[in-house]
Amino acid sequence: MQQRRPGLIKQPSVQTGFGIMTQRPASPADRVIIAGGGIGGFATALTLQQIGVPSLVIEQAQRIRPLGVGINLQPNAIRELMDLGFTKADLDSFGVPAQEWALVGMNGQDIYAEPRGTEAGYHWPQYAAHRGQFQMALYDRFRRLAGDDCIQLASRVTQYAIADDGRVTVTIETPAGERHETGGLLIGADGIHSAIRAQMHPAQPPIHWGGALMWRGTSLAKPLRTGSSFIGLGTHRQRMVIYPISPADPDTGLAIINWIAEVTIDDVTASNRTGWYSQIEIDDFIHHFEHWKYDWLDVPALIRGAEAAYENPMIDRDPVSHWTDGPVALMGDAAHPMYPTGSNGASQAIIDARVLGAKILAHGIGPSALAAYDAALCEPVSQIVLRNREAGPFGLLNLVNERCGGEFEDIDEVIPLAEREAFMARYKSAAGFARDTLNAAAPTIAPGAVMAHA
């Protein structure tokens, strides 16, 4: 049976691929405007579509293209995607189930390894995915369900104004000039450089950069260890992250391997290092990793196997006290840009979208729903931002460095297994994907739940 808010009249409904949804006109009074068409923006749009709330996505790109490299989608996020109607075949189209997370020291020996996803007893898998292909999957699904009129490309929300009646009007910059749209709510999903956040928090500090530079790419190579392992290799100041984002070809044995090469440098005052990806020549940075060769892995060969490499700084923002301003809310990187050390930035954006949808179901389309969303997530997710700044689960490398300078024969003599397991358990609990808690949790949005409208 469908759930609906008491006291409201349910409109005629239509059967869709996601179940029963309310069908009604998208009037400005109840439409939700979403600034930003990234993973968070389209996850929000799909969630609202599922519960029968109309939305308009405003995205500055002229067209959505499968840009980017690898990301990880944790079991808590995969659960939400499946609740949105994504099947295993859908997930396999842009990623591969992860089987293991392994942290390896400079001498090539394991510091810590554990199974992941269903291999670890979760009810849902963890996926290593191609970010751009995943974004395209979200975009294509929303476009198919809601229609082209619900997506405006080549447009950027630059500011908002809240009217006396509680509605919000946004100013939109387009190639044809400035224009305006009005809705019941505005969701700022416009990333780390969010104009919505800048207006909401005009005194926020500048983007924070701790001194780490990352070089990213993908190469065709044979997957390591289990065949679907996430590997962190190196020290607390210099490391590689390596994992496949496609299954191995049955004929060649090769898979698309995502890699991130990272070095912390001493000049943390370089204020210009706050951009996104810029292409770089491999010869400009490979000297940092030229001697990283093991009997099981040739790091320089892996890096040189990439067709292109991209540089970007590891950046975030200091947490803010609140993500809402009446009928306006932040989500995803606009709310909580974080270091990728925990591999949960995209996952948290999906969780944001689902919690937001649940609060709208509970409180209606208005500021009270956004206040409940803010109360549920702002403080705990802000703590994750700070944990990731301290290296997140890679913090084990810091402990190894402190206790033995990074070199060891027997890791148990440096950090006992119980201590390593407790360290990882604390992070997973804080990030919302502790196994038993997640497995026992009720769905964020009950199956078939829709808004009812007078």
Q: What gyration radius follows from the Cα positions, in whole Å?
A: 22 Å
* Percentage of residues in strands: 25-35%
> What distance separates the N and C termini?
19 Å
Main structural class: alpha+beta
Mean pLDDT: 89
**Any idea of the CATH class of the domain at 13-67 and 133-206 and 321-390?**
Alpha Beta
Number of helices: 12
The CATH topology of the domain at 13-67 and 133-206 and 321-390 corresponds to FAD/NAD(P)-binding domain
* CATH H-level superfamily title of the domain at 13-67 and 133-206 and 321-390: FAD/NAD(P)-binding domain
Quick one: how many beta strands? Answer: 22
What's the arrangement of strands in the largest beta sheet?
8-7-16-17-18-15-20-19
Q: In the CATH classification, which architecture of the domain at 13-67 and 133-206 and 321-390 applies?
A: 3-Layer(bba) Sandwich
- Low-confidence regions: 1-26
What general outline do the C-alpha atoms trace?
globular
Q: How can the largest sheet be summarized?
A: 8 strands, mixed
Percent helix range: 25-40%
